[in-house]
């Protein structure tokens, strides 16, 4: 695009240009094109797809952001099978892209011609992390009422609104994951008492919706509000990082003989017990399962809670991180190969307790492998 390009190109040229740039993932080209032409890119190709839909399908976060910033409508579609931009986004498997679309008003309830939502299509193609982003999403505007009800000042609101929104949208409520997040978003620690009260208010509001209560969301808000109560103890602490690290270690400490994270299990079972809406089917199911499970056996409380938040997954092929509960933990302890971690940071955090059990885990694994060989022979 040169200086002498007409300000508003003819429709054909314009269409060909933007679709070609998106196909070629030419971020700079698109940036220049949008600056030069100042065209709102709501247009359709022969398949009824918008440039944004093509960009979403190709997983191009930066291109999607550019198009949205220039007025692209996230819900526009004339696709023959009524796929929305969110359907294409979830097929790309890119979590940040899916979140971007939701933040800009993508409708998660939109269905294609065979009645499938984006979340269902994502599960079908195995993009579970992206599905989790959709299933755990709540619009930022859902915080308006609670902020007003709690008379939150503009200044405090500016500090806690976005961190709270991200916190509520998480699909992993492992205490260490939440504490890690709060450590980065320190306003959640400084204002922990208030944040806890707002979350509790939101939980009660969710359960008072006539006939259509979102029990899973209410339960998540309940768990998070309890963590905020814990975090409020760090408010007055001189050295907040030290206080938070001690809290994380308390949750991760393993006990004899097998390294069970006993404190965490007992804490979460108590939090579940305190959920005020005991009659909800989800809670009946969780409580029933835990009643039959000894502390130290599987499933653990955190596994059960996270699997409810993310829709029970039938085909799990990875162990969650033993330090923070994240699903995509691809690293293993190099010695015992029995526990999974996200990365070296999580491994380092949990080493203080794992080092006591690593040798035992190694022996157990070798014994189990020998058994297996013997049986096959
Ligand atoms: Zn981790
Ligand atoms: Zn080990």
TrEMBL record:
Its main location: other. One of its GO terms (cellular component) is cilium. ANK repeats lie at residues 47-79, 81-113. One of its GO terms (molecular function) is zinc ion binding. InterPro entries: Ankyrin-MYND_dom_contain_2, Ankyrin_rpt, Ankyrin_rpt-contain_sf, Znf_MYND. SMART domains: ANK (SM00248). Pfam families: Ank_2, zf-MYND. Residues 321-358 form the MYND-type domain. The keyword Metal-binding applies. The keyword Transport does not apply. It is found in: Cell projection, Cilium. Keywords: ANK repeat, Cell projection, Cilium, Metal-binding, Repeat, Zinc, Zinc-finger. This is MYND-type domain-containing protein. It comes from Notodromas monacha.
């Amino acid at each position: 695009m040169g200086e002498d390009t007409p300000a508003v190109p003819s429709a054909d040229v314009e269409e060909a240009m933007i679709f070609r740039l998106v196909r070629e993932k030419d971020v700079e080209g698109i940036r220049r094109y949008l600056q030069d032409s100042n065209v709102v890119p709501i247009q359709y190709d022969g398949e009824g797809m918008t440039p944004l839909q093509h960009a979403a399908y190709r997983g191009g976060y930066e291109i999607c952001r550019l198009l949205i910033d220039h007025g692209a409508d996230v819900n526009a579609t004339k696709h023959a099978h009524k796929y929305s931009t969110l359907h294409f986004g979830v097929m790309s498997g890119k979590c940040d892209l899916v979140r971007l679309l939701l933040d800009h008003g993508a409708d998660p309830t939109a269905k294609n011609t065979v009645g499938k939502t984006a979340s269902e299509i994502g599960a079908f193609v195995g993009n579970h992390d992206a599905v989790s982003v959709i299933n755990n999403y709540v619009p930022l505007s859902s915080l308006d009422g609670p902020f007003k009800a709690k008379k939150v000042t503009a200044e405090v609101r500016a500090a806690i609104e976005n961190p709270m929104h991200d916190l509520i949208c998480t699909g992993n409520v492992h205490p260490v994951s939440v504490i890690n997040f709060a450590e980065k978003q320190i306003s959640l620690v400084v204002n922990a008492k208030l944040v806890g009260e707002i979350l509790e208010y939101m939980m009660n509001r969710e359960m008072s919706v006539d006939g259509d209560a979102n029990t899973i969301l209410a339960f998540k808000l309940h768990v998070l509000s309890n963590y905020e109560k814990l975090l409020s103890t760090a408010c007055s602490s001189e050295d907040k990082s030290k206080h938070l690290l001690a809290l994380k270690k308390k949750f991760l400490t393993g006990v004899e003989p097998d390294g069970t994270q006993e404190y965490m299990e007992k804490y979460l079972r108590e939090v579940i017990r305190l959920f005020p809406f005991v009659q909800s089917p989800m809670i009946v199911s969780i409580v029933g399962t835990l009643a039959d499970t000894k502390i130290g056996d599987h499933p653990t409380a955190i596994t059960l809670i996270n699997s409810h938040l993310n829709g029970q997954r039938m085909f799990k092929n990875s162990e969650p991180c033993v330090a923070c509960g994240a699903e995509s933990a691809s690293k293993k302890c190099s010695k015992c190969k029995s526990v999974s971690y996200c990365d070296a940071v999580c491994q380092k955090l949990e080493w203080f307790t794992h080092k006591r059990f690593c040798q035992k885990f190694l022996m157990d694994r070798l014994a189990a492998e020998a058994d297996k060989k013997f049986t096959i022979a």
